[in-house]
Every structure is written in C-alpha cells, then in structure tokens.
Design brief:
Elements (H helix, E strand, L loop, with lengths): L1 E10 L7 E10 L2 E7 L14 E4 L3 E5 L1 E3 L18 H12 L4 H17 L2 E8 L9 H12 L2 E8 L18 H15 L8 E7 L7 H14 L3 E5 L3 H11 L3 H7 L7 E5 L5 H10 L2 E4 L1 H6 L7 H7 L3 E3 L13 H11 L11 H15 L17 E5 L11 H7 L5 E6 L2 E5 L2 E2 L4 H18 L1
Parallel strand pairs: 1-4, 1-5, 6-7, 7-8, 8-9, 10-11, 11-12, 12-13
Antiparallel strand pairs: 1-2, 2-3, 5-14, 14-15, 15-16, 16-17
Length: about 450
C-alpha cells in the first residue's frame, strides 16, 4: 500500500539536516519512496489500489523516536525510593524486583511500550537483567509485548552473577550462575535474533553493570556477542559511587575496566556515561563506543550531568534513553528531547551546549546509530524504513512558535497525530491502534499490586 503525506513541515534529520517548510513523503510498503518539498507527484506508480493521502497541515514530520535504554519491568515499581542515589535506590528495590514473574513482566512491558508509542517512539531497546528462578520466560514476555504493540524492538538479555556475598550490590537470590546466564543468552539469540534490514526484533548481550557482574562474565559475554554477531550493552560511569567501586575492586576506572574486558567498540553501547574524563571520552570516540543518554533518570537519582556536548564534539554516537520508570516515572522519550537540551545547558557549555536540532538528532538518528541501525532508520530518506511520526503543532501549546523543531523540542509534549512503524499505523490522532490502553493500564495496576503484596 502507498501512503502519501502532504502539506507538513519535515525535518529529515539526514546528514545535511534537510528541512522543508511545506513538503511531502511517499511511503510504499515498509519503505520511504520519496521525500521532498511541495505536494507529492500526482502520477505515482499504480500498485492496484489508490494511495492513502493524508493532509498533514499544521504538523511536523520527523523520523520516529528511538529509545536506546529502558527497564520495562520497573513500570510496576514507580514512585518508590524517591530521595535516594543509585546504590541506595537499588538496594531498596532489588528485593521487590526479585519477585517478578512472567505475567508481571508482560504487563509492565505492554504499559512501557504503549506509553512510548503514544509519544512518538517507533523503536525501543530494553535491558532486562533480573531472572528469578522458576518465574517463566521473562524475555519472551517482553518480546510478545513488543509484537502486540507493534514497535521495533532490541531485547538486551541482561545478567547478574555478583551477589552481595561476593562483594556485589544485588542480593544473592537475585543473581544467576555464569553458565546459566550465558546459556540463556545464547538461546535467546538463536531463537529470536533477526539481523535483516526490516527486522522487528534483535537481541543484544547485556550483563548489567560492573558492580553486579564478575569480570569473567563480562569477558565471556563479549566473546559470545562477537561470535554471534550481535551488539553488547551495559551500564557505565553512571555515578561517583560506581567509579569508587571500580577503583577499589579493579584498581582502575570504569572505562579502563571496559577496555580490559573487551567492552569498547563499534558494537557496544553504554547507558548513562555521566562521569567521564577527557581520556574516557577520547577512548569512546576512538573505538566508536555508543552512549545511551538518560537525562531525566540522571537527575532523578542525582547522578550528575553527562558530558553530551563533549561526546558529540568528539564524534561519539549518542542516543536518548527513558531508563527504567522507577527512576523516570513519566516513561516517555519525547520529554527527553527537551530535558537533554535543558540539562546540558546547566553544564559548562551553558547556552552553547545543545541546540533543538541536536536534541532531535539524539532522539532519532543518534539512537539508530547507537543500536547499529543507522543505515535502516533514524532519518527520513528514500530507501529507509518508514518509521515516521507526525506531530501536531497548530494547537494551543505550539501555534505561536514559528520554528517547528523548536516547537517540538522546547514546547510542551506535542500530540502525535500519526505514528508509522514500517509504514503500519500504530498511533493515530493520539490513540494507540494496536491495543486497548484502558486494558493495559488495568492489567498493569493489578500486577503492580500483586508484586507489592508478594514483597
């Protein structure tokens, strides 16, 4: 089926940052066939059915937003440990999280994905690292939820094997053995990973963090990922407490530790990366290691201000992440566009730190690069996947901001009038088309209560 979108502003986020004040998009099947100024050509190829024509007056078309870091299961534990830094927050919540089961994870994943979809996300990555014994197929529950909601999904199969008795942060009953974690990760890759251009599902190898994973698991995870040709993901340089832990346990900072264990490279992306020296930034740039920037979560847990302007200037791939909703209760990525710009301007670069267009690039093409999909999505160009969002900007909240990109980034959250994933409508006129939002909310609330009562 061909879809024609006309009469809208367009921010392509291509290499030249091409924009049109009044342009068109032509979508055929799951690909973008054409993008340009003015109305679409009237003599489109006849595929046996008339094209769907959308008058998008008053809207801005952008690539779909790409979330590069999340923890879906945390939807069930929002609003807890409100005044804690990362380590205290984890210690407070690990006992509850260790009681999650398949039904809970499915409900939490549906809610997390639905919330992001309504806010313009077309592709999401989730880092799931808690696998209590005998609780079902937790990764499979997330994968099924992503299929139901209709978003492109990178499932980062996490792991923890360093419990408190061995000097780690998670309780012993919340960790796996190395062999169990690696076997389950390899099975997930063999069962689910689709490396194709139009893939809706990819698997990444994702041990949790330096303070919850042994060095052996870090090394062997990197070896597994590279043997299987998949990406690697973990948390890195998030807090001063983590940096202190690494120096005390390994005799070096997080970035040097990652280099020692094979965790720097173009196939790696790290969440947070707040506390980085000039040498750390240079190491990421030299190796092509990506960063998932999570400004709201960093603020919620008082982690600090990431050096995003310096990372970008050095050529480091940077995308945006919601992070788990126990540390970013809004659960939305489009608010991170605004927050990334505002938080960056609190740092040493001040008003020159980040522009509205750089913030949009972080949330689109930057995220695609971080997930290894820059050739497929993240910008509006012929031949790329038709992951497209129309933001309505002629309403009360935006109509007096003449620059549509500034309206989207600096204004209030813009309504999504249409969101396409591979050309398929997922959201229309602000309403999720693929699932019942009220049922999702009801089920998530019931599962949150069941989890709280079991703790």
């Amino acid at each position: 089926m061909t879809t024609v979108i006309e009469h809208c502003a367009i921010a392509t986020v291509d290499a030249a940052d091409t924009e049109y004040t009044d342009g068109h998009l032509v979508i055929t099947g799951d690909r973008i066939a054409a993008v340009g100024p003015g109305p679409a050509p009237r003599d489109l190829p006849d595929d046996g059915a008339p094209p769907r024509r959308i008058d998008a007056s008053g809207a801005l078309a952008t690539p779909g937003l790409i979330n590069t870091h999340h923890h879906f299961y945390q939807w069930l534990t929002r609003g807890l440990a409100q005044n804690a830094h990362l380590f205290d927050w984890l210690v407070a919540l690990y006992p509850t999280w260790s009681r999650i089961d398949e039904r809970m994870v499915h409900a939490a994943a549906r809610a997390s994905l639905a919330m992001m979809a309504r806010g313009g996300v077309t592709s999401a990555a989730d880092h799931h690292y808690i696998f209590p014994r005998g609780t079902g197929d937790l990764l499979g529950a997330e994968i099924e939820a992503a299929r139901e909601i209709g978003l492109r999904f990178t499932a980062a199969r996490g792991s923890m094997d360093l419990g408190t008795s061995d000097g780690g942060l998670p309780p012993d009953f919340a960790v796996e053995s190395i062999d169990d974690a690696l076997a389950a990760t390899e099975a997930a890759i063999d069962t689910h990973h689709d490396p194709g251009f139009s893939s809706m599902l990819r698997i990444a190898v994702a041990p949790c963090s330096p303070f919850s994973v042994t060095t052996d698991l870090m090394r062997r995870s990197a070896e597994l990922a590279r043997a299987k040709g998949v990406r690697l993901h973990t948390h890195g340089s998030e807090t001063v407490e983590e940096e202190k832990f690494c120096h005390e346990r390994f005799g070096m900072g997080p970035t040097d530790y990652f280099a020692e264990t094979g965790w720097l490279g173009e196939d790696v992306w790290m969440a947070h990366c707040v506390h980085m020296s000039d040498d750390d930034v240079a190491a990421f740039a030299r190796t092509g290691t990506g960063v998932a920037h999570c400004p709201s979560s960093n603020a919620r847990l008082a982690a600090g201000i990431a050096r995003v302007p310096d990372l970008l200037a050095a050529g480091v791939p940077v995308g945006l992440g919601v992070d788990g909703t126990a540390s970013n209760e809004s659960g939305e990525l489009h608010t991170e566009l605004r927050n990334s710009l505002l938080v960056a301007r609190l740092g040493p670069h001040r008003e020159a730190a980040l522009t509205a267009r750089q913030a949009l690039r972080l949330g689109t093409h930057g995220g695609a690069r971080v997930l290894g999909r820059g050739a497929e999505t993240g910008s509006l160009e012929p031949g790329k996947l038709a992951d497209v969002v129309l933001w309505q900007l002629d309403g009360l909240g935006h109509s007096t901001i003449a620059d549509p990109v500034a309206a989207l980034v600096l204004g209030p959250p813009a309504p999504v009038t249409l969101s396409l994933v591979g050309g398929r409508p997922v959201v229309e006129r602000g309403r999720l088309l693929t699932a019942d939002e009220h049922d999702i909310a009801r089920t998530a609330r019931a599962e949150a209560r069941r989890l709280a009562e079991s703790s």
